[in-house]
Amino acid sequence: MSALETTLRYFKAASKVMDLGDRIERFLTQPRREISVEVSVELDDGRLETFVGHRVQHNSARGPMKGGIRYHHLVDLDEVRSLASLMTWKTSVVDLPFGGAKGGVACRPETLSERELERVTRKFVDGIHDVIGPNKDIPAPDMNTNAQTMAWIMDQYSKYHGFSPAVVTGKPVDLHGSLGREAATGRGVVIAAEEVLRAHGGGKGVQDRTFAVQGFGNVGSWTSRLLHEKGGRVVAVTDVRGGTRNPKGIDVGDLLAFAKRTGSVDGYPEGDPCTNDELLETKCDVLVPAALDGVVHKGNAKDIRAKFIVEGANGPVTWEADEVLRKKGVVVVPDIYANAGGVTVSYFEWVQNLQVDTWSEEVVNRRLHERMTRAFAKIQSVASARKVPLRTAAFVVAIGRVAAAASRLGIS
Ligand code: NAD
């Protein structure tokens, strides 16, 4: 099942509970605009190469649209559509005044030099600058794009429209970025874990609980680090090469230093080797998949031994696996809420840019905590009232807000 079909299934499960009706359902599933542009650039050796870039703007009923731009050879319209709609639900579930969008360029960034990536980025902005903007659609980093990419986007867009730092978020901190943005998604995952453990795990938070974390990039490494700081016991960590497991708990600071030195958590000497399959089946309180989509599927869902899954990655649990986990009693905290910390601090960055202001890291973290805990309380109250899983409840909250805004605007 494609990512788009999975998102649609989750949407339908919620819309059935809400009794939305066909007309509004069609409006909420149909993207507002999709554009594909040719991105032709000169490579360093003088050859001309052409890529295709997409931007899908899913829904703007609640405000300007928001979503990342990824560079990957498998980027296609279907994937971008699915991710754009997820952004509509993600911004809504944490109650940000944004809609959802997503974009990407189908290219192999690992084969491109820094100068070539800059040309690809600037050319892509040439193709889409008319449809993005601080009050229209605000891109952000995603797979294989980073703060530097955002700086190029800001600069290229500003050449057409005048100085506009608020056109993108996830910028470098020394170029109108926000303090706290780098850690924000991991910080949000930890807040989500804390909330679900308190609500469904006997009132106690992350302290002394055990965690297995897949992925040690931005989301996985910050999640592990912050869990460790809060007294959680991280017992297994993997990345693309492999990983390490230690039931007594891993010293995450030491692991970070090791991964920095070697480029991977694989081979860490203070634990046993651990494959990605073994990590997913590790006995622990909470599994945090924070790398890829579709890693918990119908083939391995029955072998999951965690009591909770907090989705750090987008779409790590397939639709079929979700059903198996529910029957097993595993509580899944859905991606649209669990990894919304990043877009929340992106929103804070946008606000700071528009106000020409800078917030301290402490203010950013406090406001992130307030938003994430408020959102969990809302999702939990819907889940309890309607007797539905947290994922369906999160979609009910998100869809309800977008539908309400749309009907106030008179577009349904
Ligand atoms: P990243 O590129 O920084 O890190 C990805 C990690 O996954 C790396 O440790 C890599 O080694 C590992 N990995 C890659 N292939 C793997 C494989 N086959 N098996 C196991 N591990 C593998 O990416 P990130 O920013 O941490 O994003 C991770 C996930 O979180 C993605 O699904 C992304 O869409 C989602 N997400 C990220 C953010 C953010 O702010 N960075 C926000 C929301 C959601």
How does this structure look, described?
By secondary structure, the chain is an alpha/beta fold. Helices cover 47% and strands 17% of the residues. The chain has a seven-stranded mixed sheet, with helices on both faces. Strands 1-2-4-3-5 form a five-stranded mixed sheet. Helix 1 packs across helix 14 (390-409) and helix 13 crosses helix 14. The chain is globular, with a radius of gyration of 21 Å. Bound molecules: nicotinamide-adenine-dinucleotide (NAD). Residues 185, 214-220, 238-240, 276, 290-292, 312-314, 339, 342 line the site of nicotinamide-adenine-dinucleotide (NAD).
List keywords for this structure.
412 residues, alpha/beta, seven-stranded mixed β-sheet, five-stranded mixed β-sheet, 14 helices, 47% helix, globular, binds nicotinamide-adenine-dinucleotide
